[in-house]
Each structure stands twice: as C-alpha cells, then as structure tokens.
C-alpha cells in the first residue's frame, strides 16, 4: 500500500482544481489529522520540484512552483 501523501498527490493531480480538506477526508476514508499530516509530508516532498502544494482557506491544490516559473 502506498503512503497517504502519494494518494493525495494523485487525487489533486486528477482533480486539477482546489480540493477541500474535508473532501479528502471523505474520499480517502481517513481522519483530518492523518490527512493534514500527509499534506505536510507531501509539501516537504515537493519542496524542490517543479510543482508545489498550495493551501488556501482549507483547500489544497497542486501548482507550478514559483521558483520554476
């Protein structure tokens, strides 16, 4: 089984639009604390890559890393 942060990355890539954290909780049948922990890990993992994790108003999405634009 793959890490939760990998699954979240795939969901965000597929959706293409911002996703509410509560929707991730529901989709992935997890609790908010685990989702938030996985989001933190994903943000670190993407830190020096061409895409980054952006969180605004309880929504998360993947975006072009400002340093890569």
What does this 3D model show about the protein?
The chain is of the alpha+beta class and 69 residues long. The chain has three helices and three strands. Strands 1-3-2 form a three-stranded antiparallel sheet. The termini are far apart. The mean pLDDT is 93.
Keyphrases for this structure?
69 residues; alpha+beta; 3-stranded antiparallel sheet; 20% strand; globular
Poorly predicted ranges (pLDDT <50, ≥5 residues)?
none
With helices defined by DSSP (H or I, 4 residues minimum), what is the helix count? 3
How much strand? 15-25%
Question: Helix-strand pattern, N to C?
Answer: HEHHEE
Distance between the termini: 34 Å
Radius of gyration computed on alpha carbons: 11 Å
Mean pLDDT across every amino acid position: 93
| Overall number of strands | 3
* Widest sheet: strand ordering: 1-3-2
Q: Give the overall form.
A: globular
Structural class determined from secondary elements: alpha+beta
Largest sheet: 3 strands, antiparallel
Q: Approximately how much helix is present in the residues?
A: 40-55%
């Amino acid at each position: 089984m793959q890490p939760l942060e990998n699954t979240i990355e795939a969901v965000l890539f597929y959706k293409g639009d911002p996703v509410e954290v509560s929707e991730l909780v529901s989709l992935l049948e997890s609790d908010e604390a685990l989702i938030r922990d996985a989001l933190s890990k994903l943000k670190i993992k993407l830190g020096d890559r061409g895409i980054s994790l952006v969180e605004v108003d309880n929504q998360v999405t993947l975006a072009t890393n400002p340093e890569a634009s």
